[in-house]
Write a structure and sequence with these properties.
By secondary structure, the protein is an alpha/beta fold. Helix content is about 45%, strand content about 15%. The chain has helices spanning about 20-30, 40-45, 50-55, 75-95, 115-120, 140-155, 170-185, 190-195, and strands at about 1-10, 35-40, 60-65, 100, 125, 160-165, 190. Strand 1, helix 1 (about 20-30) and strand 2 form a beta-alpha-beta unit. It starts with a strand and ends with a helix. The mean pLDDT is about 95.
């Protein structure tokens, strides 16, 4: 059962400890676990050291747009601008081209032929998810978060992509448990490129 932990790495949507992304990287390093980080361009510009750390520690880098706005609401030029600006920012900061991996902000546009066509034109493929435990929700219960992720991954029967976020307190505190419980359930943790080829 191969499972990819994917972490949307963006400016916080709610009040949260600013040290959470670093704590997540610490947890992944301690467990020897890989992840795929879909990084917002503005976040990388604000936290270049952390963006560089993501790639230095062997995680896969993906593009999460520059402004983190719904792509389906944008014109083609708007999509091109936010995707390319993020790509340029990520490449300049990390030395790594994030192509072909992309995640639409909010999942918006992932089933929109126009959005997907624009992404393909720019050299990207959108990466969705099978397990979305809504770790961003205010007051998210830690025990339920862990169990929702494990149950969802097991139900998917392998090949599941788990959607997490870089900023919620609950995600930073439970990530070691999430990794341990997935492994106890028989999961091999891999990057998205190892899952999708």
């Amino acid at each position: 059962m191969r499972i990819a932990l994917t972490i949307d790495t963006e400016l916080a949507g709610h009040v949260a400890d600013p040290g959470n992304p670093a704590r997540q990287l610490d947890a992944l390093a301690a467990a020897g676990a890989p992840a795929t980080f879909f990084v917002q361009g503005r976040w990388a510009g604000a936290y270049p050291e952390l963006a560089r750390r993501i790639v230095a520690e062997g995680h896969r880098l993906g593009n999460h747009s520059y402004h983190h706005a719904p792509l389906a609401m944008m014109t083609n030029d708007g999509i091109r601008h936010t995707v390319q600006r993020a790509e340029e920012t990520l490449t300049k900061i990390t030395g790594i081209d994030p192509r072909p991996w992309f995640r639409c902000p909010y999942g918006d546009g992932e089933n929109d032929p126009r959005v997907l066509g624009m992404l393909a034109e720019l050299g990207y493929r959108n990466v969705g998810w099978e397990v979305a435990p809504e770790d961003w929700t205010d007051g998210r219960d830690a025990d339920d978060l862990v169990e929702t992720i494990v149950a969802g991954a097991v139900a998917a029967g392998g090949g599941a992509r788990v959607l997490l976020h870089s900023w919620p307190d609950v995600t930073a505190t439970t990530l070691p448990r999430i990794i341990a419980r997935l492994r106890e359930a028989g999961a091999e943790l891999v990057r998205v490129d190892e899952l999708e080829g």
